[in-house]
Amino acid sequence: MPTITQETAFSLFDISGKEVLQQKIVGVKSEVFVGKLPKGMYFYEVIVKDRKEYGKVFIE
Question: 3-class SS at 44?
Fold first, then answer.
């Protein structure tokens, strides 16, 4: 995940592509609470200005 130095949009999607979490992140260190999500693989999207980053994460 990229280093965050300005306001950033973070979204998490389940395996079917449904958005299950959306959060604004400001600062270098932020936490995203995923405790209520079922175990499995998810995809994330991070948007900083006009740049987008994508990846996947496993919740156990």
Answer: strand
Mean pLDDT of the chain: 86
Quick check: 25 and 8 in contact, CB under 8 A? yes
The pLDDT value recorded for residue 48 is 85
Q: How far is CA 20 from CA 13, 28, 39, 41, 44, in A?
A: 5, 23, 13, 12, 10
* 60 in any annotated domain: no
Instruction: At 35, list the tokens.
Output: 């405790």
Domain with 14 in it: 1-30
Strand partners, 22: 11
Could you tell me what percentage of the chain is helix, strand and coil, using 3-state DSSP and rounding each to the nearest 5? Answer: 0, 50, 50
Count of domains in the chain?
A: 1
